[in-house]
Amino acid sequence: MDVVKFNDQVSQTLTSQPSVCARSLHVDSPPHKPSLTTSYVHGTSTFPLIPLTVGQSLDNTVKRWPDREAVVFLQDGIWKTFAQFQQDVDKVAAGLLALGLKRGDRLGVWGPNIYEWILFQFASAKAGIILVSLNPAYQVKEVEFTLNKVQCKAVVCPTHFKTQKFCEMLREICPEIDLTPAGTVKSSRVPDLRMVIVTDSRQPGMLHVEDVMQAGESRHHKELMDLQSKLSFDDPINIQFTSGTTGSPKGATLSHHNIVNNAYFMVCVPVSMYHCFGSVLGGMSMAMHFIKLVFSTLNKTLFCSGLMLHLGIAIFLYNFPLHSDTASLKSLGYCRIEGRIKDMIIRGGENIYPAEIEQFLYTHPKVQEVEVVGVKDERLGEQVCACIRLKDGHISSTEEIRAFCKGQISHFKIPHYVIFVDSYPLTVSGKIKKNILKQDMEKKLGL
Fold first, then answer.
1. Which domain holds residue 400?
2. CATH number, residue 253
């Protein structure tokens, strides 16, 4: 079966018989031998992957279930059917094109679970713009690093959430915002940033979501329609950041193909939207399974979707070990799980690399040496513990170290425990035995 016919058949089947599409399109063939640049892991499977873009997935669902509820934000009184949601998505997508963003540009979304998060997720995908998921706990240095790392041209955020003052932090990074017309930012610290789009109260020098929705004219909507035939399901569409082994966050690029198929098998997700887990396995399930998304204010962290009857009920807990495995891709396309990333700390589902915290703590004037380990915690799984050797003649306290971190690194990276040490357990070659250090700290803390 050629690719065009296969694509047409999948698209047609999804809109007519979604519950049997996988069985109808059964493909069973041996894996091909990929080139060295191939990143696919492909083996024999009962269920074929779905060759659709994010926009196609939503459009197909709208054709079948236009009046079914798609998105509900209880705390904001927002109830959208699939047809209503699609109208909003198309308005925002056309508006982004009208404002000068184009296919391949990067747009960051920075904030909690709000309607605009999922709205811009689908709108950016439909416009071919790559959405960058920004952790709402990021502080100034962290968000500046990520914006520059992937050259974000736009950022969408509320003015504030709890103690996080998003617009104030952006002004600290980019004071030029107040001096230029909205949408024409030019900054020395973040040279690629052109606009900030606010989701709640209007701010000087910043656009509002309503401005984006009203910006698109008929020619921009036509441009958006024409663009759909040019997008490929292999195009990059999302960048997810996680802590890096060398200290700085690393960005993982996801394609339409990737997130559409990951979403197809997920129906209930209790996590935040900025996570790959939340936006991909959660947000995308609406379009893939013709269901309603319900956002609850419980802890401000709960994200749930409706359940798809023909798949049955499936609950997936957040704290699971897949984000802590290492793997390699073999020459025939098979993926082999080889072991756990020993140094990574998993605190309540957040992946934390000690090197990032260590590099920051080395900037404290009293710190001579520091090693960060994860110690067990009954509720969160692990907590961050900093083992610090001070410079000669200096004294410090847990409170001083934590205060030094506050506002500089995300709250979940701030050491819960600070232990001052004179030495570390070493191997015969002089390397620090982190596994022994971890055990020693747990014993010292009575954990």
1. 345-445
2. 3.40.50.12780
In a domain, 121, yes or no: yes
Whether residue 216 sits in one domain with residue 361: no
Q: Which of the four pLDDT bands, split at 50, 70 and 90, describes residue 340?
A: very low
Same domain, 290 and 358: no
The 3 state secondary structure assigned to 278-337 is HHHHHHCHHHHHCCCEEECCHHHCCEEECCCCCCCCCCCCCCCHHHHEEEEECCCCCEEE
| 364 and 401 Cβ atoms separated by less than 8 Å | yes
| Two structure tokens written together for 84 | 């209503």
CB contact at 8 A, 273 and 296: no
3-state SS class at 370 = strand
* 249 vs 243: CA distance, rounded Å: 4
Report the percent of the chain where pLDDT is more than 70.
Answer: 74
pLDDT at 270: 58
User: Whole-model pTM?
Assistant: 0.67
Look at residues 273, 303, 333 and tell me which one is the last residue of a structural domain: 303
